[in-house]
Amino acid sequence: MCGQVGIIFGRKRRRPDERDYLREVFIRMLLHSEERGPHASGLAWLKTDGGHRIFKRPMRAHELVYEKPFQELLGQVDNETTILMGHTRWRTRGNEF
């Protein structure tokens, strides 16, 4: 069992305060999905030019959100971001990732 969350930004331009609000919503969604996957969690985003970043760790979401790389990656969400995705994993086979 795993949890998946996301926000589709599309091409709409948003003010900085709107992006800040959506970042907070994303964190809340990721934390709420933790019960579906306590063994690992992560996030990824995709930009309009195809650029993307992924950050994942073998830890609970409530720990991950305080990691500096998580905060830095989430801080890079801007008007070029088209989608923001999060995942929590319940390890059934293999390693945490």
Provide a descriptive summary of the structure in words:
The protein is α+β, with helices and mostly antiparallel strands and 97 residues long. It has a single domain (2-89), classed as 2-Layer Sandwich (Dna Ligase, domain 1), CATH 3.30.1490.100. 30% of the residues lie in helices and 31% in strands. The chain is built from three helices and four strands; from the N terminus they run E-H-E-E-H-H-E. It has helices at 16-32, 61-64, 68-75, and strands spanning 2-8, 40-47, 52-57, 81-89. A four-stranded antiparallel β-sheet has the order 1-4-2-3, with helices on one face. The two termini are 13 Å apart. The mean pLDDT is 94.
In short:
By secondary structure, the chain is of the alpha+beta class. The chain has helices at residues 16-32, 61-64, 68-75; strands spanning 2-8, 40-47, 52-57, 81-89.
Order of helices and strands: EHEEHHE
Average of per-residue pLDDT values: 94
Uncertain ranges = none
What is the gyration radius calculated from CA atoms?
13 Å
Query: Main beta sheet, described?
Result: 4 strands, antiparallel
Q: State the fourth-level CATH superfamily.
A: DNA polymerase, Y-family, little finger domain
SS content category: alpha+beta
CATH class: Alpha Beta
